[in-house]
Amino acid sequence: MAQQAALIYSLTPSRTFHKPYLLSSSPRFVRISAVQSDIKSLPQRNSLSHNVTQLKELTLPSYESEDTTTGIDVDAVTEAELKENGYRSTRRTKIVCTIGPATCEAGMLEAMAVAGMNVARINMCHGNHEWHRAVIKRVRRLNEEKGLAVAVMMDTEGSEIHMGDLGDGVVSEKAEEGEIWTFSVRACGSERPERTISVSYDGFAEDVRLGDELVVDGGMARFEVVEKIGPDVKCQCTDPGLLLPRANLTLWRNGSLVQERNAMLPTISSKDWRDIDFGIAEGVDFIAVSFVRSAEVIHQLKSYINSRYYNKDVAVIAKIESVDSLGNLEEIIKAADGAMVARGDLGAQIPLDKVPSVQNTVVQLCRQLNKPVIVASQLLESMIEYPTPTRAEVSDVSEAVRQQADALMLSGESAMGQYPQKALSVLRNVSLRIERWWREDNDHGTINLPHIATSSSDRISEEICNSAAMMANKLEADALFVYTKAGEMASLLSRCRPDCPIFAFTPSTSARRRLNLQWGLIPFCLNFSDDMESNLNRTFSLLKSRGIIETGDLIVVVSDMFQSIQVIKVP
Ligand SMILES: Nc1ncnc2c1ncn2[C@@H]1O[C@H](COP(=O)(O)OP(=O)(O)OP(=O)(O)O)[C@@H](O)[C@H]1O
Ligand SMILES: CC(=O)C(=O)O
Ligand SMILES: [K+]
Ligand SMILES: [Mg+2]
């Protein structure tokens, strides 16, 4: 079968380290021995070439599923990246792509996975269950057939106010200055009168007042309310712009966001609960909850999942996009398994100039609380239409990478844009470049990570990970290895944002997919025993036989089972 081809940008080979350390691998003790002092023989980091030297076409071979009792599950994409670029040059920042009409076919999904998509996001605001089920199935098949670990994230609709669909085949409408448009709580159906938009919230006509400002999609277009006639609200366009199907609507009065009765709408609507049941049944890995206002709803969803689907491994991501969430950030993030800075709606609820500081706050808070964080929306908005990004967009992406967010997200760029693969490769290349720059810039200081563990055993794990990451940096190790059943130790290592990549070995395919969202983690599926000596020997020979590691590589190892750090030179 013809495989989709995609472009992989190869950086010059850099794996020529000669590591001068030799370590014994005794579990339970941190035992460093025979440390030699020929550190000068290490290559200068800045001697690693920055040049993008070759463009290579990569097709994914069909994947023979490994017997994980003996083998190791690693996919062709990771393998190629590790071999081509060397460990130090692998991308640490993960990429979430929203799947829509532009990317939902199997070939495109594969091309996106080859080009670096770590997580596929489906937005329940659009499409129906049949459409979403087909996408999830295609991703799952891709994972099975090609040995990939692309996770699926389902994003709930939430019950904020938005416009209805524009009708069959209508992808957008332009509102011009001065035009009068009708926003109505009546469903318009297929015979939508000209310049009429349906509104999702029944209380809309009652809540608005003459003179209110109606803002579409955080400022894509603006209207002033000029007349109310029963269910219809006549509005005059004051700022022309594009109206997209199901665009978000906010009302402003005297410079403040109006939250009349819509503030009482549930964060998780009855449709959302049905979508959540659907998503869990279809095996999604993450549920991203829109418009979270407080920690309560996260607790509610998590206990629902635990009681109803106790054997399912579903992580809950709190989307930070509601003005009300900002006073409860810490509790919300603590309650959730991760967070998303959903800048689209956030920018419609708070002044735009406040969005960057909220982004920074959420990213840093997540890092401190050890929760993965995604920076989302409009990263490369212009690439929906154009093949190159603006300089400002590239700067915005680099800022998120410099903040060391776990993941960046594409929205319309990958869902319905004309250049989804190009947008993905911009995220990849900017990430690689900025990560390298960040590592080479020795002046980034150390971020103070507070203790997060509550039990003494967790506290030990935390300290082990902090120390292992620090050792790996000081020894300029080639990689950190972590053997982890549920992924906790892997997260703790990722939280330290070490200089080298983290190979996370887990026996669980769902844990492997979940870890794919986290900064710097390269998750592998591997069945391991309680005998670390034999786990290591097996891992070394498996990875060596595939050319991923080589004799002499310096590895720092931690595991769930033994509270120890081992430093080993690959035999
Ligand atoms: N499943 C889909 N079917 C059709 N179009 C889609 C689909 N998913 C996304 N799109 C299109 O891509 C655009 C961007 O999608 P995205 O899901 O990122 O919206 P968003 O507004 O950023 O997210 P949210 O609705 O969660 O605030 C949408 O406005 C829509 O036009
Ligand atoms: C992603 C999303 O929901 C937003 O930016 O609004
Ligand atoms: K959504
Ligand atoms: Mg949103």
From TrEMBL:
Its main location: plastid. GO terms for cellular component: chloroplast stroma. GO terms for molecular function: ATP binding; kinase activity; magnesium ion binding; potassium ion binding; pyruvate kinase activity. Its EC number is 2.7.1.40. Pathway: Carbohydrate degradation; glycolysis; pyruvate from D-glyceraldehyde 3-phosphate: step 5/5. It is found in: Plastid, Chloroplast. Residues 91-423 form the Pyruvate kinase barrel domain. Residues 462-561 form the Pyruvate kinase C-terminal domain. It is an enzyme of class 2 (transferase). Gene3D superfamilies: Phosphoenolpyruvate-binding domains, PK beta-barrel domain-like, Pyruvate kinase, C-terminal domain. Keywords: ATP-binding, Chloroplast, Glycolysis, Kinase, Magnesium, Metal-binding, Nucleotide-binding, Plastid, Potassium, Pyruvate, Transferase, Transit peptide. It comes from the Eukaryota. Its cofactor is K(+); Mg(2+). Pfam families: PK, PK_C. The keyword Iron does not apply. It catalyses: pyruvate + ATP = phosphoenolpyruvate + ADP + H(+). Belongs to the pyruvate kinase family. NCBIfam families: pyruv_kin. This is Pyruvate kinase. It comes from Dillenia turbinata.
